[in-house]
Structure formats: C-alpha cells, structure tokens
C-alpha cells in the first residue's frame, strides 16, 4: 500500500506564484524526483506519493509551508491504497490510492474542508477524518509566524528552540510560546496515533 496526496492551493490567484511554487518544488524534491514521485499541474494543483506511515508528517510539512505565505492555504486529499500501475509520471499512475485521493479532493472542495483521508476501511476513515476535522480547526488558523516555526520543527527533528530563536531573530521564550500556541506536542502525539491507525489497514 502507498499514500497519495492530491492537493490544490487556496487563494493562489492572490499570491506571487513564483514564490510559493518554488518553495513547494524545493520541499517535494526532498522526498523524491518529479514527475515520478510528485508533480505540479494545472497551475496550482499537485500530486505526491509516499509511504503510508509518513503521510501525516508530509501533509503537515506541506500545510505549514503554504501557510507560511501570506493569505495562502492548501486543500489536501489523502488516499491510501494500492498502486496497480506505476508510470514515469505520477499523474499517469493508477490504483486505489490514486482513485481515493483524486475523488476525495473534489469532495472536500464541495464541503469546505481543507483535509480528509480515504482508505478502503470505513471505520478507519471515520476515526481519522474526525481527528482531521478537529485538528484542522488549529491548522487552518495558523499565523504565518506559527506556520514557519512548525515547518522548521517538522523538517528538522534535531533543531532546538535556541536554533529557531537565532533563525527567526526572536527570543527563545517567543519560540516556546509559538510552539505552545500551536499545540506542537499534541501534533506529535497525533502523528503517532495516525501511524497506528494506518498500520491497522
């Protein structure tokens, strides 16, 4: 089984495309090469595949990166399933993971949510989607400053609060306050729970 993330940028027409698209490409390059593992298409949509136990952390990395740009957000549909056909281009690959993810993105565009998951297990879907709805109440309201800090923490597990204070030229206590406001410890716990539920599939 694999995880496929299909997403689109919210408010992309109100932002400098070159800035966010360059940052998104640089992020996705960390995880594999285009167009085999990821691709950006139709201007502001993208698709990316990864291991199922990494998908929540990758979702958060993308979310925090985009939210660290003024006025931008991202819609993300996570599909978990098989890959029956692997093409040289991810957008031409196929299997239940791709089908789940692609259809789900259309659904969440219609219902106003910013993230959802679809697997072949309705019970797991129900549990994880309730979790995502609650957590998104936080994620969707991250400020640019909070998103920047979260992104650094996700991308570099070894980074310390002192390192972050130097990077953003703020005090260490300000870093600590931002992480508390973002419920960072709870985010880490949620990632562990997500992995556990996915492993039951």
From TrEMBL:
Name of the molecule in the record: SatD family (SatD)
Matches recorded under Pfam families: SatD (PF16264)
């Amino acid at each position: 089984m694999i995880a496929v993330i299909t997403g689109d940028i919210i408010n992309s027409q109100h932002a400098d495309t070159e800035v966010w698209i360059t940052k998104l490409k640089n992020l996705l390059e960390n995880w594999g090469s285009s167009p085999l593992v990821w691709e950006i298409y139709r201007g502001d949509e993208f698709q990316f595949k990864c291991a199922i136990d990494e998908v929540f952390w990758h979702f958060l990395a993308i979310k925090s990166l985009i939210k660290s740009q003024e006025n931008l957000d991202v819609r993300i549909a996570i599909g978990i399933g098989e890959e029956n056909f692997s093409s040289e281009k991810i957008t031409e690959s196929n299997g239940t993971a791709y089908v789940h993810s692609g259809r789900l993105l259309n659904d969440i565009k219609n219902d106003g949510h910013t993230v959802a998951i679809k697997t072949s297990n309705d019970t797991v879907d129900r549990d994880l989607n309730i979790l995502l709805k609650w957590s998104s109440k936080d994620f969707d309201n991250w400020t640019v400053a909070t998103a920047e800090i979260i992104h650094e923490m996700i991308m570099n597990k070894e980074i310390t609060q002192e390192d972050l204070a130097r990077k953003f030229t703020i005090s260490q206590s300000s870093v600590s306050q931002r992480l508390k406001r973002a419920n960072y410890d709870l985010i880490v716990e949620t990632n562990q729970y997500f992995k556990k539920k996915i492993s039951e599939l």
